[in-house]
Amino acid sequence: MTSPTVKLNSGHQMPLVGFGLWKVNNDTCADQVYNAIKSGYRLFDGACDYGNEQESGQGVARAIKEGIVKREDLFLVSKLWNSFHDGDKVEPICKKQLDDWGIDYFDLYIVHFPIALKYVDPKERYPPGFTYDGENIVPGKASIQETWTAMEGLVDKGLAKSIGISNFNGQLILDLLRYAKIVPATLQIEHHPYLTQEGLVKFAKDHDIIVTAYSSFGPQSFLELDMQQAKDTPLLFDNPTVKSIADKHSKTPAQTLLRWATQRGIAVIPKSNNQGRLAQNLDVTSFDLSTSELDEISGLNKNLRFNDPLNVSSINPCPHMRGID
After folding, report:
1. pTM summary value
2. Which residues bear the site annotation Lowers pKa of active site Tyr (predicted)?
3. With 0-12 CB in 10 A as exposed, 13-18 as middle and 19+ as buried, what is 256?
């Protein structure tokens, strides 16, 4: 089983369902990527900040070596971290990340946050995280225009087939579109029934930008980060509306939440180290929710955001986590 694809404005096809590498432990990452490929996953969403790109590449290399897939069968995604927004730092760090993955190009390379931080030499600390010296957040001076122009250069040089953005709001996207020679192919945002961001989703679609949802299960994604807000929020898996709709379709609450997104044309990147759930998460386009069911789930919106860089100091990351997504 593999995921259906969606055509990006760059002309390339992207799987609608992928495997997210955020919070995947280093000691299990290679095996998880390898097993996910065996289960049918073809899109893997990584980032410098996740600290597991070498291990992700090892899982990919194993699957290719065994003939399970070819490189061109995969859609590999990574992200530019905040510390590398200066125009002359974008290409070198992208090349380092490609070396970590053991590949020649990214299918999609994304600006992780619209936040420029002071440069940290990878030889000194990598990934650098949000803080410069372990304590202070030091802003950088690069504008989004400077960073995006350098991102466009990656496409020109064949280092990335498509480029995108993450955690941008509508105003920032409008500004970017004034000078962009290459329109972002994707917009990755926190998106779940507690944070539907309907206006932003519509805006992106109106500009032919595919939306990818992260943290599709809402607070569930942040419990292991010991976030108090997540602990205080009822789990979507236990929500009566979600459970009722899931039971009606003989699906799990997780599958129902993922279908709520994919049926509306939004890509998803869940993760699991359980083989059964891997298959379940991939099988979220084989059934349809009714319009009323989609509306019921959307009606759970609370405008409740968990991933807020301003609250980074309140989060206790996992050992391999330097940022929050």
Report:
1. 0.94
2. 79
3. buried
Residues 119, 83: contact at Cβ < 8 Å? yes
- Output DSSP code: residue 216: T
What is the tens place of the pLDDT at every residue in 110-159? Answer: 999 999 999 999 999 999 998 888 788 899 999 999 999 999 999 999 99
Over the stretch 47-93, which tens digit does the pLDDT of each residue have?
Answer: 999 999 999 999 999 999 999 999 999 999 999 999 999 999 999 99
Cα–chain center distance at 322: 16
Q: What is the CATH number of the domain that holds 128?
A: 3.20.20.100
Q: Would you say residue 145 lies in a domain? A: yes
Q: Residues 306-321: what's their mean pLDDT?
A: 51
Number of domains in the chain: 1
Number of neighbouring beta carbons within 10 Å of residue 199 = 10
Show the domain range for 204: 5-305
Q: Tokens for 194?
A: 């507690």
Let me know if residue 20 belongs to a domain. Answer: yes
Instruction: State yes or no: 207 annotated in a binding site.
Output: no
Cα angle 20, 26, 32 (rounded to 5 degrees) comes to 50
Question: Which pLDDT score, from 0 to 100, does residue 137 have?
Answer: 87
Q: Which residues are catalytic?
A: 50
Q: How many CB atoms lie within 10 A of CB 113?
A: 23
316 in a structural domain: no
d(CA 166, CA 50): 15
